[in-house]
Amino acid sequence: MARIVVAGYAVRFPLGGNLWAHLQYVVGLRRLGHEVTFIEDAGWAGSCYDPATDLMSSDPSPGLGIVGALMQELGLGDAWAFRDLHGRWHGIERLNLDELLAETDLFLDVGGASHFPEMRRARRRAHVDMDPVFTQLGAFGADRRLDEYDALFTYGARIGRDGCEIPTGGYEWHPLRPPVVLDLWERRGADAAPGAG
Q: In this predicted structure, what is the pLDDT of residue 39?
């Protein structure tokens, strides 16, 4: 069993597809027998989306409520934390990040939207590029932040391969398919298919 910290972007943008994209890693790795903690950072002022009002603000309350309830439902109520703009932790309220990361086998940065300089304490660090091309051309490649990782994965399966015109930024990208925990998705019969009736 490994101790894994997954960093992501769920509280600040608590919409279905985005939540599930990140939580597939957390749930899947937990089910494989690993000790997993999900962490997220507030990032910058005005980075929190409220789906009820369709507004951006610095208030993480809507996302904290949504993610907190979902984590509880998934049996992960004790396995997530969000650091707000004031440095306070929510979820695991007394999280000692330096201590957690010093004991972490893998820091898995899913999407790159929550940057934790403390991640350097983890034994291994990996980045998952969820936005191919944006990552290679955008700020992640320009500021050399990717140098901090031991391995880089991308959903862009051909990046770095012959015939692919997307620049690599000088990095080796390993193709990765998004994980799916099948039983979290409701199975529908043919009669429930769109257009059936």
A: 98
**What is d(CA 78, CA 95) in angstroms, rounded to the nearest whole number?**
11
Question: Would the CA dihedral through 146, 57, 87, 74 be positive or negative?
Answer: negative
Q: What percent of the chain has pLDDT over 90?
A: 77
For residue 128, give both structure tokens.
């998952």
- Does the pLDDT of residue 43 top 60, yes or no? yes
| pLDDT of 195 strictly over 60 | no
